[in-house]
Queue: 4 jobs
Job 1
Amino acid sequence: MKWRSISISILVVLAIGIAGYLFNSTESPKGNDSIPGTGIAIRLYYYNPANDQGPGGVQCSKNGLVAVERVIPETSTPLTETIKLLLRGEISQEEKIQGITSEFPLAGVSLISASIQDGVATLTFSDPQNKTSGGSCRVAILWAQIEATAKQFETVKSVRFVPEELFQP
C-alpha cells in the first residue's frame, strides 16, 4: 500500500510538470543547441541571388536562402531574439564576399511580439513606413527569410504575420 501511494505521488508530480510544459504558449521553441557559458546557437536566413538563378535571372525563391550561424545569449524567448537579430541585417564582410545579402534592416520595422501556439508562430510587427511593401520579388524574399528563420525551431510548423498587410507587393 505504501508503494502505491508513492507511485501515485510521483505520477501526479510528473503530470503537473508535463502539463506546465505543454501549456506554455508564449514561446518555447526547441531545436537549437545551447552552448554552455556562451548562449544558444541559431541560424539566420539571408539571401544569395547566385543560388537562385533560373530562366530570366533571379527567381525570388527560397532556393536563394543561405543559413548563417550566430549565437544569442541564453534566453527564455529565443524566437523573439532570433527574429530581432535577423531584422538588424548584420552581415559580416566574409558573408558579403560570398554574395550573401539582405534587405534588412528596414527603417521603422520592428518585432512587437512573438508567440507559438499549436505549432504556429505568430509574429507581430510594427511597420509605420510600409517598408515591408514593394515588388513581389522583394517581399517574397523578405517573407522567406523570416519564415525560414522562425521554422528552425522544431515547435514552429508555420508562421503567421500580423498585421496581415505586411509583405504586400
Job 2
Amino acid sequence: MKFLTYNREKAVNYAVKWAYGRNLAYVDFENMGGDCTNFVSQCIYAGIGVMNYTKTFGWYYNSINDRSPAWSSAKYLNKFLLENKGAGPYGELISLNKIMLGDIIQLVNANGEMYHSLIVTKIYGEPSLFTIFVTAHSFDSKNRAFSSYNFASYNAIHILGARQW
C-alpha cells in the first residue's frame, strides 16, 4: 500500500476552472438532483488521482451507469471519506478554524439531511477572524463566501490524503 499526498492546489485549480462549466468527461447531474457532489468528487480526484473501485461502497466514476453512490451523493461521499480504509481519498471531521484549501464542506438541513457539497477555494485572514470562500455546482458559484449560505449545520472534512494499492 502506498500513501499519497492530496494536491490541494490541483483540486482548487480544477474547481475554479470548472466552476461555471462542465467537464464533458463526466455526466452533468444538474437535472438529476444536482451536480454539487459530482463536481466536488471531480475536484478531489484532480488533487488525488486515485479512485476506489469497490462496488457499491467505493468512490469511482467511469460513466453514468458505472459509478459508485459516493461519487454523486453528499451523504455517501461523507460516509466514504470518513470511513474509507482502502484505496482512494480519506479524511476527518474538523472545525472550521482548521479548514484548508481543497477541504470539503457539506451542508445539512433542519431534518438532518446532508444536501449540498462545497469545496474550499479561498481563505482570507487569520484563523480566528478568517473568511472562507467555496466553489460549487448546482447554483454554480466560484469563491462564494461560505457565510452567505443558509443551513442548519455542516460537516467540514479535511482531506488527509489517499491510499493506492
Job 3
Amino acid sequence: MVNIKAALRPYADVIIFMITLFAANYFWKWTVSGDENGDLVTWFGWDVTAPFEFMACHIARVVYWLVSLFRDTAFMADEHTIRFVGGTGTSIIWGCTAIKQSFIWLCLIATVRPWIVRFSPFTFHFSPFTLAKLWYIPLGWVCCYAFNILRIFLIALLIEHHPEWFHMLHDYIFKYLFYGMLFGLWVIFVEKIRPSLLPN
C-alpha cells in the first residue's frame, strides 16, 4: 500500500506554495474590492483607498517619464492616464499597483518551512532563517515594484500602435510573467538560501 504522506514529502514545499498562492489570492478577492476608477477601495468594508490612490498616481508618473524617454507623442491626460497623440493610451487604476502581488509574496515567504523558529523577545535574537525572511520579503517587494513598472511601461509602448494587444498583454502575458517571477524568487529562497541557514 502506498504511503501517501511519504510519497508527497518531496513535493511538500511546492504543495505549500500552491496552497498559499491560491489561499492568498482568494482571500484578497473576498476582502478587497474597488470600483474601476479606484475612487473607493475597501478591505473588509473599511476605506483603504489612500495607499492605492497614492501608488496609482506614483506609478503613472514614473511610467510616463519612462515612456517620454522613447516617445515624444505621450502626454498625461490626468493623474492616472497616459495617452498618445494617436488616441490610444492606458489608465493606471488601483488594481495596477502591485499591492496585491506584494501581499501574496509576503504570504509565500512567510509560509516557507520551518514555520517555528527560535526567537527570544527578551534578547531580540532571531534565528538566521527568520532574519533571512525579514530581508528577503522586502527584496521581493522591490522586485514586485520594479517588475510592475516595467510591465506597465512595456504595455504602454506596445499599445500605442497596437491597441488590440492590450488584453493579451495585460491579462495573460505579463500577468503570468509576474507570477513566474514570484515563483523564481521563491525557488531561490527555498533551494539556495534556506539550506545554507538551517542545520542538516
Job 4
Amino acid sequence: MTKRVLGIDPGLLHTGWAVVDTAGQSRKYVASGVILPKPKMEMSERLVTIFRELTRICETFKPDECSIEIIFVNKNPKTTLILGHARSAAVVAVANQDIPIFEYEPNKIKKALTGVGHADKSAVDKMVQILLPNAHPKTPDEADAIAIALAHTNMVQFIK
C-alpha cells in the first residue's frame, strides 16, 4: 500500500514543503517547493499565506500523513516565538484537512537519514540524493522539507 507523506520545514519567510510516496522500502519523489510570503507583509498576512498555500498543497496532493520539524530554542527567544507562529499556521492548515501530523526534532531527522544525529547539512543532502535521485531542490528550505518527509518514512514504522 502506498502512503503519501507531506514534509514541512516551517519558516515565516521560507516554508519548505515536499511530497514523497512510500511503499515498503520504496520511496518516490512527487513534488516540492517553498512558500514565500512577501517580507513586507504584516505578520498576520504571512501566516495566512502559509495557511492558504499549505491548504492548497494538501488539496492538490492529498497526503495521508504529514511530518514537520519541531522548533528548537534559539538564542533569541523572539526568533523562536516568530518561528512558532509560522509552524502553528502550517500545523493548523494540515490538521484542518484531518491529516495526521508527526513531529520530529532536527537531530532525529538527521539520524533517521544518515545514522548520525549531528550530521552536517551536506551529509543529509547526500542521503536525500541517494534515496530520491529525481528530487532537485532549489533552496535549503525545500531540501530540508524533503529530508523531513523521508525521515518520517523511515521512522513511522517504529511509532505505530
